[in-house]
Every structure is written in structure tokens, then in C-alpha cells.
Amino acid sequence: MKKSIVSVVFLFLIFSSIYSTDSSVSNFQVELQFFKQVYRISDPVPVLINIVNRSGEKTSFRVSPLIHESFFFELKTPKNEDVPIADNFQVEMKDNASAGSDFREITLAENESFSRFIDIAKWFDLKEPGYYYIKGIFFPNPDNKNEQAESFYYKILLKPPSSVEKQLNKEESNRQVELENVQKFPPYEVIGDFFDAKMKKDWERFLLHIDAEKLISSFDEYKAAYENARSGKYRLEVLEDFKRYLTVHWQDRIMAYKITKTQIEENKATVGCDVDYKIETLSYSMRYLFYLSQNHLGQWLIYDYTALKIK
User: Fold this and answer.
1) Cβ atoms of residues 257 and 195 within 8 Å
2) In this structure, which of 63, 115, 184, 224 has its CB flanked by the most CB atoms within 10 Å?
3) What pTM was estimated for this model as a whole?
4) How large is the C-alpha radius of gyration of the chain?
């Protein structure tokens, strides 16, 4: 077991880059060690921070009894946003400070190291699952925060607690089954589910019933941008922008809808639907005629429609 842990530590050893040009600081190399790459939210996230003497001779520094005065970390999200320090730890740092007489002097021979285990879950507000980038910071003189040695950034992954992850996986599995089922609906159920998804603002299910590449031709501005696109990449961007537009195109609140007729001829169908809307105190009704086609997977998709105000 000991051999396995040492191997894992060696595998994830991250060597430092010294950013300060101060001669006393450049004597030290900061290394971070982790025993795994994936952690759970609400569980400890232990980090071993090593300070290695790379000066070529004996070198001394001072260590505070308050570990955060000698060692610290910078933690960022993939969006380069700083992860805030936990409220309890902020209070602890504010209420506690060491005097210089409390510092302990440490002398390291060449390539000798000094280490501390730190649970960063107690230091930072780690509430969201996802990737994080962590950098270790060492202050050889706790009284002088302008002189510091830093490690490289290291990437770790935080996952939800096991119970939450199991529930999320179950919900995702149920959701996938739901989306697979709606793709099998006949034309009249497609239109019913289309408006049901709109009422519930379930935009993933809403867009699942639309053939965006064909429907875009019914919207002059988007049609022109799509046809004039100079590359396939730009066409995809126009198409994605069009899909976002569709989620707000029918923005008035739907009170009720009723399928009035359905006609199916081979792989083409038309479905009539009356929809009652309300915006503030104003109510009105629209009569739609949707045109659908069946793709090679057997899914019925809306490729065009007409609309008439009837009340």
C-alpha cells in the first residue's frame, strides 16, 4: 500500500516556477503533491506543499505557527475567476496573527525539503462541481508578503457527493429516455409536445421538434445571413443564433392550445393548432398550420408554418 501511495504521489508531482527575482526567494522551489485527481465536494481536499532548497548550499527561512502566514494557495475556475476564501477561514485569519518572536527558523541542506499537509476544503469556498486550478505560494518571511515563491497551476476535479451524483445520473438517464420517446411521437403529438415544452420553458425539448436548417428559410433576416455565410462554421453560428431566437419568438404566455386537424401523406404532414395567449391583461388567439416532414430516423420535424390571428 505504501509503495502504491508513493507511486501516485510521484505521478502527480508538479514542479514549480519561481516568479520572483529576489535572490532569497529564488533559492526555493515550490512543489504540490496530490494523492488523486478527483475529489468530492464536502470531502477533505488534502494538498502536500513542499519547499525544496535549490540554492546549492544551506538556506534558512522562517515559519509561522499559523500555517496560512507561511503557506497559501491561489485557486481559480476554468473561467479564470478567483475562488473566494471560506467565511470561517477569513474570520480565523482576521482574528489571529503571529508575532515575529513566534516564528521558527528552518535550515535546509541542498535539495532538502520542508512540507506541510493542508486541507484546502477548509480554506476555500468549494461548493460547485467542476475543474479548478490551484497554485501553491510560500512566504520565506511571514512578515514580508512581497517576497514569495510560487508553484505552477495544477488541475483538479471536484465532483458532487456520491449520493447527489447518483441522483443526478438517475435524473439524466430518465431525461434521456424522455427525449428519446418524444422523438417517436406522431405529428399531432409533436405539435402538442412542442407547445407543452414552450409553456414549461423546456427549450431542449422544444428545439427537438424543429428542423432549424429548413425553418430558417421562413425568417427573412436569418435566411439571408445563413445563405450568405462564407463558411460552414459561420453557418453553424447563424443556425445556433436562430435557435436561440426561436426560444423567445413565441414569448407571450400560452394559456391553452388545441390540435384541430392532422393530415399525413407518406413522410409529410400538416397539423392545425389553435393557441390562446395572454400578455398582461390582453388575451388573443392564433391559428397555426404546421408543416412537418419525417427524417431518415423516423422523427417528425417542423420545417415551416403559417399563423393567423383569429381573436
Assistant:
1) yes
2) 63
3) 0.49
4) 31
